[in-house]
Amino acid sequence: MDDNQSLGQRVFHRIREDILSGKYGKDEELKEKTIGDELGVSRTPVREALRQLELEGLVTIIPNKGAYVVGFSAQDIHDIYEIRSLLEGLCARWAAKRATPEQLEALEEIMMLSDFKVQRGHFDQLVELDNKFHQQLYEASGSKVLEHVLRNYHHYVERARKMTLPVPKRSVESNEEHRQILAAIRDKDEDQAEVLANRHMMNTIQNFDRLYLRK
Amino acid sequence: MDDNQSLGQRVFHRIREDILSGKYGKDEELKEKTIGDELGVSRTPVREALRQLELEGLVTIIPNKGAYVVGFSAQDIHDIYEIRSLLEGLCARWAAKRATPEQLEALEEIMMLSDFKVQRGHFDQLVELDNKFHQQLYEASGSKVLEHVLRNYHHYVERARKMTLPVPKRSVESNEEHRQILAAIRDKDEDQAEVLANRHMMNTIQNFDRLYLRK
DNA sequence: AAGTGTATAATTGTATACAAAAATACACGT
DNA sequence: ACGTGTATTTTTGTATACAATTATACACTT
User: Fold this and answer.
1) B144/B156 Cα distance (integer angstroms)
2) Boundary residue ending a domain (B44, B69, B94)
3) Distances (CA, A) of A130 to A9, A20, A106, A173, B6
4) Domain containing residue A39: CATH number
5) Whether residue B195 sits in one domain with residue B121
6) B57 contacts B70 by C-beta, under 8 angstroms
7) Which of B52, B64, B145 minimises the CB distance to A52?
8) Are residue A59 and residue A143 in the same domain, yes or no?
9) How far apart are CA A16 and CA A24, in angstroms?
């Protein structure tokens, strides 16, 4: 792991993980001193982290009172996927319009690696490549703003994805959908790229719901 | 203004305003001590604010080096409006599906007030009501996540809106569009609500572009 | 004059100290 | 027993102190 980042950032990521993983439950109070002692740091970096987490919506801070974990439900994750569905569509559309040759090349490379991993049955390593594909797509949209919001959401549901993608069947399907999206972008077919990216996310939702909402 | 919030939050809002208003230009270095001295506070609240601003994408922090203003262009604002167009559409759709009677009532009330202000020609006071209408709509979506992201963007472009909405003609149009969206929500016509909210935002984009991108 | 190395200053990162507010404990009166 | 007021403790908010890192100045060499 990247070790030369500031304590504040490390604490931020750590607490976020602990919230997303459920270590800290809904409405639990996060005390600066307690967390600081646990992580072996002073209150200062912890405070910074908590303030950041509030902005992410994972924590509510009541002034002079404390920081409380904002619970997030399976419904919330579902909502995020729906939002992402729209935004990934827009992203694919813009990528089709403005991706540079280098960005396209990067996408092709990730695609090739993914195919390789699928062939070899290394489904676990596909999670990381799925990450990379989407991140690269965000960059290819050419929009700083869109990239920023999608990155956020992407990370938000990372935990959910880690649990759902390793289902081998879905993983192969997902890879196939990536291929089609990439083809549409290569052809500069904006409408098609948007529709496919949209559908890709909707399929991911279904997969998630099947596992967690039992619909 | 709300005065009983923490210094950190006040500094956060202040610096954000100063970035959005252009007081701090692109790539400008924000030094903790300098800002602290200007605002009459110590470095601690300033640091907290800068860490939060980084998360919002307004500032880049290079560890051990400094915080730098991330410039945002008219293109960025345009992008935000396009993103909002999709999300406001989704929001209206969900509001049509799940708005409570109380939330509907609140929307009706804002609508009525807006009509009144239009009739009287008090276009300046419509900005605030436009705010309220959208904020209430976000709440009516029943999705914490969607509400969160839309609030963010809404505030982000607040400055742009303050400059574009007071154009009386647009202001009347906008009010009319709100009325139609509200009607669709009242009728629980999800598709119609989405389309109208979508179009509403697209019209806002056009108004913005006409003024700032000269298209 | 250009480049290099080193001392110095400025700036950020973290911990700690102190102030303010809130939570808790507990004696007291009813 | 129950509420109430007060003292005590805990926790947050802010400032400051010190450490680590980076930027700057400047003498020195070539």
Assistant:
1) 18
2) B69
3) 25, 20, 13, 12, 41
4) 1.10.10.10
5) yes
6) yes
7) B52
8) no
9) 9
> In the numeric block, which tokens belong to residue B153?
């963007």
Indicate if B64 and B95 belong to the same structural domain: no
Which among B46, B69, B92 is the end of a domain?
B69
Instruction: Nearest chain B residue to A71 by CA: give it.
Output: B144
Which pairing describes strands A66-69 and B29-30: parallel, antiparallel, or unpaired?
unpaired
Say how far apart CA A57 and CA A50 lie, in whole Å.
10
pTM: 0.90
Angle at A174 between CA A172 and CA A179, to 5 degrees: 95
Q: Which domain holds residue B25?
A: 2-69
CB B164 within 8 A of CB B205: no
Nearest by CB to A86, from B56, B79, B90: name it: B90
CA distance B110 to chain A (A): 27
- A15 and A87 assigned to the same domain: no
The pLDDT tens digits of the residues spanning A30-77 come to: 999 999 999 999 999 999 999 999 999 999 999 999 999 998 888 999
Residue B87, H or E segment = helix B74-98
Query: For A98-107, what is each residue's pLDDT tens digit?
Result: 999 999 999 9
Do B91 and B13 fall into the same domain? Answer: no
